[in-house]
Specification:
By secondary structure, this protein is mainly β. Helices cover 10% and strands 66% of the residues. The chain is built from 1 helix and 10 strands; from the N terminus they run αββββββββββ. The strands form 2 sheets. An 8-stranded antiparallel barrel has the order 1-2-3-4-5-8-9-10. The protein is elongated, with a radius of gyration of 16 Å. It starts with a helix and ends with a strand.
Length: 164
């Protein structure tokens, strides 16, 4: 899995060097996010044509997590509706007692407490032509500090309703 993540990061930087920034086709969006740890609702707002902030309220077994991300968007593969994005942020949440499946790892028993850490994101988003629907696929590396420190990498799938 680490080789895949490294290859994706290298590919992202190659695309970054080859592509110039371009405007996103919407101003804001709300939707659903399905991830390796949490599933929940998300909201995205473009502050500038190629920079956005995204918030995700994720529900997980015995807990809740709020994640905030700062993202940079660019056209990918010269397809106007396809955007490559990357960014960083943080998460804050709480979990109750229970067993948790770490993505790609063994179950681990957690006592109730705080979740706090740093997050990254790298992915692709496709705005369906003639439609207000956007679909995204990304990787979310994160470092959990309050329960760790430990590093995990989780995939994410999003579907959003966009607003002009």
């Amino acid at each position: 899995m680490r080789k895949t993540a490294l290859l994706l990061i290298i590919a992202a930087f190659v695309m970054l060097l080859q592509q110039k920034a371009s405007a996103q086709d919407y101003r804001g969006a709300v939707g659903l996010k399905f991830g390796g740890y949490e599933n929940g609702i998300s909201g995205k707002y473009f502050m500038k044509p190629n920079t956005a902030i995204e918030g995700i309220l994720g529900i997980r077994s015995h807990g809740v997590v709020l994640t905030g991300l700062y993202e940079i968007h660019q056209t990918a593969f010269d397809v106007a509706e396809l955007k490559f994005y990357y960014g960083a942020g943080a998460h804050l949440g709480a979990v109750g007692d229970g067993y948790y499946k770490r993505y790609g790892g063994d179950d681990e028993y957690y006592k109730s407490g705080l979740l706090l850490g740093a997050d990254g994101v790298i992915g692709l988003e496709y705005l369906i032509p003639q439609s207000p629907i956007a679909i995204s696929l990304d990787l979310n590396p994160r470092v959990e500090l309050a329960r760790g420190p430990f590093f995990d990498l989780a995939p994410g799938l999003g579907i959003k309703y966009t607003f002009k």
